[in-house]
Amino acid sequence: xxxQPNDKAKHISKCLELAILFEVSADKPGNVNLTTGFxxxxxxxxxxxxxxxxxxxxxxxxxxxxxxxxxxxxxxxxVGQIIRNCVWDIDSWQHGGNTLLGxxxxxxxxxxxxxxxxVVKENFEIQQLRKNxxxxxxxxxxxxxxxxxxxxxxxxxxxLGKAPDxxxxxxxxxxxxxxxxxxxxxxxxxxxxxxxxxxxxVSNYPVTFEVAYxxxxxxIGKAIGLNKAIVHTFLKVxxxxxxxxxxxxxxxxxxxxxxxxxxxxxxxGGLETSLGRxxxxxxxxxxxxxxxxxxxxxxADIVAATLALCILNGYRP
Length: 317
Description:
Blueprint: H1 5-25, H2 43-68, H3 79-93, H4 101-116, E1 119-120, E2 123-124, H5 126-138, H6 142-155, H7 172-179, H8 184-191, H9 196-202, H10 206-221, H11 226-240, H12 244-250, H13 252-267, H14 274-287, H15 297-312
Antiparallel strand pairs: 1-2
């Protein structure tokens, strides 16, 4: 129950932790799940990561509460610092490599926004949360950008490639960020062309709020079970938005092929039909063939954010 501000922050952090656990537990094609992992990265690495991330989500929520009470300004939330420290803790708690970078980048401002949002019977008003989220992402500082660059270096994700501007591997990028007063929002605006996580940030999470969230709510309402609801939501997002993690590694055309197959599986009924299940199993095997180059990791990040909204709005298994 939420009685005091610190109870509210703990509640928010638990909601986000549960979202991560639900997301990794679902049998999504091409992703780590309860029974199938990648070389060097398995389910237990995500469990450890979720536990490591939770205190930082609580801190983010506390800062959001402080903003709502006018104890600090929105510019002083320092969400980049939270992301960096969260990623550092995740890295120290497990040896499976990059597990949650994109998810942490999406969930940290959600935690702050939830802290700023009013609660009715432990349910967070989703449209007010989205309004607060826009305020958080647009109020970042150059310091936030520098901290997120550090977080990315700690996580060391695959498929980064070379950015057309402010490239992470260019030693001059951080100097430019500080000298030219470039905020994290501005950095992500540059990256939004080729990275869906960054695109969500600068566009106020349109895929999460307008596509994935209502679809997940409908799926849960069909009483088909949470695993099926999550897998179908994953397929829905993947079908409509080619995964930028795949696109960066092996090209947009291949990413579009993967999206077309996801759409086909949904049309076959997904996990609700024998033909859909057969096609999904074949799809999963196909995605796991190429040294994880076809892992729809960005789609998984968006599904985690979607689950966070669902749980914050009162869903309980």
